[in-house]
Amino acid sequence: MNIFCSRISKLSILKRKPIKLNIHIFPYMTKLLKLNTFLLLAILSTITLTMTSCNDEQPKQNIQKDTAIIQNFDNTQLLQKYFKQQNYTWPIGTPEQIPDILLETMPKDLKQLSSIKTKKTLFIQILLPLVFAEQQHILKKRKRVIQLIEQSGNKISVESNPWFASLINEYRINKSLDSSTQKQLLLKRIDSLPTELVIAQAAIESGWGTSRFALEGNSLFGEWTFEKQAGLIPNDRHSKKTHQVKKFESLQLSIRSYIKNINRNNAYKELRNARFEMRKNDRKLDALELAKYLHRYSQKGEDYVKSLQQLMKSAELTIISKLNLNDDSTFPSS
């Protein structure tokens, strides 16, 4: 109970004294009394509403935009119990079974789970709603871009539309390019990635959520940063190196950063071009094919690609590919 509620409670038990009026001055006080009566009623009404609010006060649930529920569990047993209570069991068969439950952090004891199968399943259950939410987030932005392009034709420009200008900056598109080229680059860069591909990379890069960077910094993809205090220093970093592994306030922000990295980094231009052609030809995003263009993500090169493809063919991730979450082939009509 807050301080104001506490004070109101104390006021409610005070004895009320009767009001005494001097009849000789009554004629002169009529208007004033009427005014005070209305004022008194207003005060009493406010106090009543406040006390009702105090009595009904409940612990606040952390709700994210789009009504998704933010949760944190340090204990995997409690998390598994909670998922069961929400009827979120594995495997699932339809996208409708993906809950609006977003975990901010990995359970601290995830690494201690003795069953590898349980560990992998729980990791996928945690990531699937997060990745799905981010995919919807970027597809919503993409649809707005397409709407803007279709409505304005060739008239749209950095000068004419502030939001368009902000996207040009965000996705690192050369402002000196002509409007038509800028629009095409936006369509190539503002798009989703196959869900199974995102989860496969997160699994490899974070050791199924058990790495130090995942547990201490919510870092699922091993992204580097050179900003001081912005990351965690790798234990095996060479003395002459200055990079850190970027840390995030939540798992969701790590996923958002990773998708943006793929969508605007020059190293993944081939992937974006291949994805653009899939969209243009009304094809489902092919995760196995797009994985071919992630050879620069790791020093392992082609071996890294093979590991990704092998993992996506595994029983755990095949379940996700069967959900057909990559069917949104949004592309301009003109």
Essential attributes:
334 residues, mainly alpha, three-stranded antiparallel beta sheet, 5 strands, 52% helix, disordered N terminus
Summarize the structure.
This protein is mostly helical. It has helices at residues 3-12, 26-55, 76-85, 116-152, 162-170, 179-189, 195-206, 212-217, 251-264, 269-280, 287-291, 302-312, 315-321, and strands spanning 69-71, 101-103, 224-225, 231-232, 244-246. The radius of gyration is 28 Å and the shape is globular.
Give the tally of β-strands. 5
| Contiguous runs where pLDDT drops below 50 for at least 5 residues | 1-66
Specify Rg, calculated over alpha carbons: 28 Å
Q: List the quaternary state of the chains.
A: single chain
Largest sheet: 3 strands, antiparallel
Helix content: 40-55%
Order of helices and strands: HHEHEHHHHHEEEHHHHH
Overall form: globular
What proportion of the residues form beta strands (DSSP E)? under 5%
